[in-house]
Structures are given as C-alpha cells and as structure tokens.
Amino acid sequence: MKNTLKVLRAKHEMTQADLAHQLMVSRQTINAIEKGKFDASLPLAFKIARLFECAIEDVFIDE
Amino acid sequence: MQTDSYTVQRRIGEKRIKIWTFIWLISFAVARFSNELVPEMQTWLSISLIVLTSGLGIKMILTLIHVMRDWDDLDRLVYYKASTVTFGFTLVGLNIYGLIQTLLFPNSEADIAHLVVILCVTFLLALINEKRKY
Questions:
Q1: In this structure, what DSSP letter does residue B110 have?
Q2: How close B5 comes to chain A (CA, Å)?
Q3: How many CA atoms within 13 Å lie on the side-chain side of B13?
Q4: What is the distance in angstroms between the Cα of B124 and the nearest Cα belonging to chain A?
Q5: Within 10 A of B85 (CB to CB), how many other CB atoms are there?
Q6: pLDDT at site B4
Q7: Chain A contact for B69, CB < 8 A?
Q8: Closest CA of chain B from A15, distance in Å
Q9: 3-state helix, strand, coil in chain A (%, to 5)
Q10: pLDDT at A22
Q11: Do residues B81 and B126 touch, judged by C-beta distance below 8 A?
Q12: Angle at which helices B73-103 and A27-34 pack, to 10 degrees?
C-alpha cells in the first residue's frame, strides 16, 4: 500500500519525530510507514487523517 | 526530543515488566532451593511457595499484556512475529529433543533448562531480526 505521509508531513513542515510525538508512536514507526515497509492499523490511519485534516484515502492509496 | 512521550511511556512499561520479572525470579529461586535452605521442609510450606511463585508468574504475564497495550503498532507487530517464530521453533525443537532423547540417549533424562535456554535465545534472535527489518 502506497501513502503520501512524507508529502503531507513536508507540507506541514513536520519532522518524523514531530509526527511521531503527535501520534504517540515511535519515530521508527513513521519511518517504516513512509518507506512502505509497514502498513498502519486502521486506528492509526484515522489518527493520521484527522491530524492532517483529510480523508484516509488521501493518505493511503490501495494499489 | 519530540518522541520522548512515547519513548518515556514505553520505558515506564518496560520498567514494570523488569520489576515483576525480577520478583518472579526471586520467588522461583526461593521455591527451587527451599529444600536446601530449610532441611526439614514442611509440605504446606512447599505448596505455599509453589502457589506464590505461580501467582507472581501470572502477575508478570498480565503486566506484560497490559504494558503491550500501550505499545504502538510496529512494536507490537515485531513482538508478535518474534513470539510466533519462537513458538514454532520451540515446538519443533521440543519434539526433536524428545526424539534424540528416546532414540540416541534412552538412559539419560531430559532437562527442561536446555529448552528454556533454546526458547530465550530463539526469542532474542527473532526479536533482533525483526527489529533490523524496520
């Protein structure tokens, strides 16, 4: 599953550490999601979408 | 550091696991060597020590489950994967160990300590391998 997390993070001028802090996860988790090594769970996907004020489909693209 | 909130939370949880593991280990050691410490050990005291060690063991497991609820998705996934590998490896290892014992060394007795060591080493290696992937 592809995602636009890195782009959204850059738009909001956030570092991986900032985003990890906001979502209460480790920086490694953010890095793994951005690199596509790990798919976020549904609750985490909702948290990300809520944080960036967009739909889940805007963050995660099912390919 | 910004990630400190999660890291701090995780460290607090890990500290709780360490404390309960240490308490359980002490109780297990006392129960295990009670016969040597007290020459004329009463049966009721032995049973009490077994019950106490079992209770503390359950508390240790429950603490681990409780602490894991606060972990993030990736940490939990790594732990689950390592646990699955360990379970499979232990199951196969246990049967092969039994087979070797029966076929090659019928006069010797199986030692549970060997299996505990295999289990711990397997879990540690599986955990390192999974952490490395991410």
A1: P
A2: 7
A3: 19
A4: 19
A5: 17
A6: 65
A7: no
A8: 9
A9: 60, 5, 35
A10: 92
A11: yes
A12: 90
The token pair that represents B54 in the structure block: 């079992």
Q: Is the pLDDT of residue B3 over 60?
A: no
pLDDT tens digits, one per residue of A4-56 = 999 999 999 999 999 999 999 999 999 999 999 999 999 999 999 999 999 99
* A vs B: CB pairs below 8 A: 48
The verdict on a CB contact (< 8 Å) between A26 and B133 is no
Which residues of B fall within a CB distance of 8 Å from A28?
74, 134
Residue B76 has pLDDT above 50, yes or no: yes
The H-assigned helical ranges of chain B are: 4-32, 34-37, 43-68, 73-103, 112-133
Which chain B positions have a beta carbon within 8 Å of A42's beta carbon? none
Interface test with chain B among A1, A26, A34, A48, by most B beta carbons within 10 Å: A26
User: Is the distance from CB of A33 to CB of A43 less than 8 angstroms?
Assistant: no
- Joined tokens for residue B68: 């894991």
pLDDT at B1: 46
Q: Which two tokens stand for residue A28?
A: 């490694």
Residue showing tokens 């295990």: B32
